[in-house]
Amino acid sequence: MTPCASSREGPKGKSRNLVERCFAKLKQWRAIATRFDKLASRISRALSSRP
C-alpha cells in the first residue's frame, strides 16, 4: 500500500522522489543497453559466419 501524499512532503519525501526517479531512469537505460548488446552479438556472429 502506498502512503498518502502528505506523508511524502518535506525534505525526506523530496529525496525519496529523486531516488525513485533516478532508479526508473537507470532501469530504462539498462533495458536499452542490454538490447544493444544482444543486437551487437547477433551482428558479430553473422559477420564471423560469412565464408
From TrEMBL:
Organism superkingdom: Bacteria
Name of this chain's protein: Transposase DDE domain-containing protein
Species name: Acrocarpospora macrocephala
Source organism phylogeny: Bacteria, Bacillati, Actinomycetota, Actinomycetes, Streptosporangiales
